[in-house]
Amino acid sequence: MQKSNFSRRRFLGGATGIAAGVFAAPNLLLRGQNGAGKRLNLAVIGANGKGQSDTQAVTLDHNIVALVDVDSDRLGEAEKKREKYCQDSKVDPGKAPKMYSDFRKMFDEMANEIDGVIVSTPDHTHYLAAMWAIKHGKHVCVQKPLCNYIQEVRNLHAAAKEAGVVTQMGNQGRTMEGQRLAKEWIEQGAIGDLQEIRLWTNRPIWPQGPFNKKQVECPPNLNWDLWLSSEKEEPYFEMDIPEGVKLWKGSKSLHPFSWRGWWPYGSGALGDMGCHIMDASFSILGQLIPEKIEAVSSPISETCAPNWSRLVYHMPAGKHKALKVTWHDGKLEDDTPNKPERPEMMNSEGAMKAWDKASSGMAFIGSDGVVFEGEAYCSSPVIYPEDKYTETRIAMKDGKIVKTEARSPMPNNPQGEWAHCIVNGGKPSSNFDYSCPLTEFVLLGNLAVRAQQEVVWDKASAKVTNAEAPNQYVARPAYRDGWLPA
Question: Domain containing 121 — which CATH number?
Answer without folding.
Answer: 3.40.50.720
